[in-house]
Design a protein that fits this description.
Number of strands: 27
Number of helices: 15
CATH topology of the largest domain: Heat Shock Protein 90
Strand content: 25-35%
CATH architecture of the largest domain: 2-Layer Sandwich
Structural class: alpha+beta
Shape: elongated
Helix content: 25-40%
Number of domains: 4
Radius of gyration: 30 Å
Largest sheet: 8 strands, mixed
Distance between the termini: 81 Å
Length: 668
């Protein structure tokens, strides 16, 4: 084979490969939107860069400021750090990048892509794409940056992303200060301390809104609570003349001993399989507090930064999981292993690495141990209770469907999907709607067993409106309305083109079925939900636009046959005097019903521990609800020769039919 250096002769006069930089930037932006979004990424990468560059000899002087500055003609979002060593090193170009960059080449790394930090350093960043999230947050795709170093030298830099190029430029000392002033319309003061400043020119509406609403502050507190609490770090956010100093969230003011209703689980300086070291694991369970979703679960920390959370709902029931929170930190050697496994956006760890698998398993085991030893909980009781409840549902569902199998029912048209989706307007297509094509199940039905995979899970979004929709798509596998395996992505659903709706099609993904993640056999729901990310003429920010789902049966048999009811599920209704309600669904190509029974009703509470009594109770409620529904439609196939025009006749028809159904039910 020709040695690599001998190829040089063939490269004389060669052209450089053209790169679609706009597309490259969009890919980076989309990768952040798959996690927590661009705005969340701006604060995470901004603080990470500053913490990486801190002067360890004067760490108590470290500080970072976020400033939203509205100038006369332009708006700027400024990220400015102090107590750091600045963007050190010379400007590099061309052949300079052919050899490995040194650790002090911070300026060169900031101006490049995919030139990572030295493995020997304790820097948080590990992929080199984070600074491009600042460019993505600019309407003009322009950032300006400057740095004052400890030797007194000063430099200004500029980057813009265009279609086929991403020009960068830099100027030193006096010329640099002049260029910085020109690029920022003389709206910003000179940098007068050692450190670095990044300026996002014309920040996106999404970013400015997050600063104005306080959402940006919440993101900082959630991600960097460890720096705020244990390192006394100073992080401020300014909106013109108003400045806020970020405080650690109250959720991480954790008790070290059991206190009132709060139980505590502490682990310190423990080895995992003699490979990895836990510095500290601190869990709290507080049944009296409604823990916000972003703090629920166990925060996996690295270098003072929250990378991701492990959901406790995979090991303990919702009434424990929804009130359990805390964190875990690791020794220096384990953090180095985690850095290699961390994804480029810093929102998780790749499952391809052994360290990820072992730590995830350890955390879940500790959660279960906490629940067993301190909260007096055991899986056996939970599993038995769920089995009883689902057995009652299944028996009632099969009995009702069999009892009405010979009758014709009103069925409306559906959206033509292969999914089962709740709908408040049967037969009418929503302007923006989801569909879920049938995934690839390992069997001909929706039954799965441990070790199986559900493959090619896809979701389509259709938009009949004349403007595009910015939304969050969430897909998860739920048990009793509790998410156990969640995937989220920020998407844009295109506007319609005349009579043709705009269409978004998700990439297919697969869901492994592991006992550690889904420990209770039974009925699960594969659910997709679309939520609005911004206000529009038709939707408010945060509004649920549409939901679709299909039922998955784990280690249990799906219901036999077909009938008027597609499912029977528990629900917590606000009014405890209401037995339940029928909701319309799409099942295949027709409308079907799901009966949602109220678990808060006193009569249900009286029978729920008895499977036979629960099944009898649900059969009665479902039969009554179905008969009432068909009575309102005037279904003469069921109420033959009955006088349905008078209240007395309708009531007598209901009583007669229920009598016949009950007699048949209790004699079979």
């Amino acid at each position: 084979m020709t040695p690599p250096d001998q190829y040089d002769v063939f490269e004389k006069g060669a052209r450089q490969t053209r790169v679609n930089w706009k597309n490259q930037l969009k890919q980076i932006e989309d990768s952040y939107r798959e996690h927590r979004g661009v705005v969340h990424g701006v604060q995470k990468d901004g603080i990470q860069n500053a913490w990486d560059a801190r002067n360890t000899d004067r760490e108590d002087e470290w500080k970072i400021q976020f400033k939203l500055v509205r100038g006369e003609d332009q708006t700027f979002f400024v990220i400015e750090d102090s107590g750091t060593i600045g963007l050190t090193g010379p400007v590099r170009d061309g052949a300079d990048y052919e050899s490995e960059l040194e650790e002090h080449d911070r300026w060169a790394r900031f101006e490049s892509l995919a030139f990572t930090k030295d493995d020997s350093s304790d820097a948080l960043g590990s992929r080199g794409q984070g600074k491009f999230i600042f460019v993505a947050a600019s309407k003009d795709n322009v950032i300006v940056y400057d740095s004052l170093r400890e030797d007194g030298s000063y430099r200004t830099g500029y980057r813009r992303v265009k279609r086929t190029e991403s020009p960068v430029n830099s100027w030193d000392n006096a010329e640099g200060r002049e260029k910085f002033a020109e690029l920022t319309d003389h709206e910003l003061e000179e940098l007068d301390h050692v450190g670095t400043r990044v300026v996002i020119v014309e920040p996106s509406n999404e970013l400015t809104s997050a600063v104005e609403s306080g959402e940006f502050e919440d993101y900082v507190a959630e991600t960097w609570w460890e720096l705020l609490k244990f390192h006394d770090a100073t992080i401020t956010i300014s909106d013109d003349d108003s400045t806020t100093t970020v405080s650690p969230p109250v959720e991480f003011d954790l008790p070290t001993e059991a206190d009132g209703s709060r139980d505590v689980w502490l682990v310190e300086d423990e080895q995992i399989e003699d490979k990895y070291g836990v510095a500290k694991m601190h869990l709290v369970h507080d049944p009296d507090q409604n823990i916000p979703r972003v703090y629920r679960g166990i925060a996996l920390q690295r270098g003072g930064m929250k990378v991701e959370s492990i959901e406790p709902r995979r090991r303990v029931p919702p009434d424990i999981a929804d009130h359990l929170y805390g964190f875990i930190t690791f020794d220096a050697a384990t953090e180095e292993e985690l850095k290699r496994a961390e994804n480029p956006e810093h929102y998780g760890f790749s499952g391809r690495y052994q360290v990820t698998k072992i730590i995830n398993s350890y955390v879940k085991d500790q959660i279960e141990l906490f629940a067993r030893e301190e909260l007096d909980w055991t899986w056996s009781e939970e599993v038995e209770s769920e089995r009883q409840q689902q057995a009652a549902e299944q028996r009632a569902l099969n009995s009702v469907n069999e009892a009405f199998s010979d009758f014709d029912f009103h069925t409306g048209d559906t959206a033509g999907t292969d999914s089962t989706s709740t709908s408040t307007s049967p037969g009418r297509k929503k302007d923006v709607r989801l569909s879920m094509p049938e995934p690839n199940f390992p069997r001909s039905d929706h039954r799965v067993e441990y070790g199986d995979e559900i493959k090619r899970i896809r979701v389509n979004a259709l938009n009949s409106l004349d403007y595009e929709i910015e939304a969050q798509l969430r897909i998860d596998l739920e048990f009793r309305n509790q998410s156990l395996s969640e995937f989220t992505q920020q998407i844009t659903v295109p506007a319609s083109a005349g009579s043709d709706p705009g269409t978004y099609e998700s990439d297919p993904y697969r869901q492994p079925i592991e006992e550690g993640d889904f420990p209770i056999p039974g009925k699960y729901s594969l659910t997709a939900q679309l939520a609005a990310l911004e206000d529009s003429p038709n939707f408010s920010r945060g509004e649920i636009i549409d939901t679709v789902s299909l039922t998955v049966y784990l280690e249990v048999e799906p219901p036999a046959g077909d009938g008027p009811f597609a499912d029977c599920t528990p629900a917590k209704l606000d009014d405890d005097t209401v037995y339940g309600e029928v909701v319309r669904t799409e099942k295949g190509q027709r409308q079907a019903r799901v009966y949602q029974y109220n678990i808060n009703h006193p009569e249900y509470k009286a029978v729920k521990t008895d499977t036979d009594a629960s099944a009898d109770y649900l059969f009665r409620l479902m039969s009554q609800a179905l008969l009432l529904d068909e009575l309102e439609r005037g279904n003469q196939d069921i109420f033959q020769n009955a006088d349905l025009d008078s209240p007395e006749g309708a009531l007598q028809a209901m009583v007669d039919e229920m009598g016949d159904l009950s007699a048949a039910y209790y004699t079979t």
